[in-house]
Amino acid sequence: MDGQESADLQKELEQMRKKIEKLEMEKLLQGDEIQSLKAETRSYLDELELLSSKVQILEDEPLQETGTIGKEVRLRYLEKHRQRRGSDIGQVGLERIKCGDRAAHRGRPVVDALLCLDELITDHEVYLDLYGLSPKTMKRWKDVPEMVEITGFRASLQSEGRLTTDFQGRFERMLQISKFYSSSTELREAFKETKILQQLQHELQNCYDSIAAANRHRRNQRQDSAL
Prior knowledge:
The protein is 78% helix and 0% strand.
């Protein structure tokens, strides 16, 4: 083997050595990247677990959802209805009415359910009498806008002594159908797809509107007669 052949062979060996080193480096970098991705995944999982814990804490502390509306206002609404029913509300109830007297005008089914479940209102019968269902049921359906709206209508009519058998009959029918759905997600989708639920919602809205319109008409007549 002459000098030129030896030099060529040495050159090829050097090139092969560099290729091997490059492959080893790429393998090392890929290993580092895999470890980094695994660490990032663990970080995301830890963050999700933390967020889930925070969500659970919020669900376990329902009064946080009442802040913007005013706890005193909602307590006044419930205590006032207990008073109308002849219940002994005591000094605490009278103070609650006094604190929220200027702002409570209509039903808030989700907020009032949370007040009951947090035991600030221990008389759950007052909630059932107003809204036509239990606080636990309302909490389960709190993410279904149609149920929240119609249940609020029902409470408004009941608290003012204007709940009709026509409205109540349709309302009970809606409750019966809703019991067939195991989750709020299923019920929310059902209101979008099921004609009977859509029809009942429409009829209940119209019924509430007609009762409210008739009440405004009577009020206006009384005002005109007083002039």
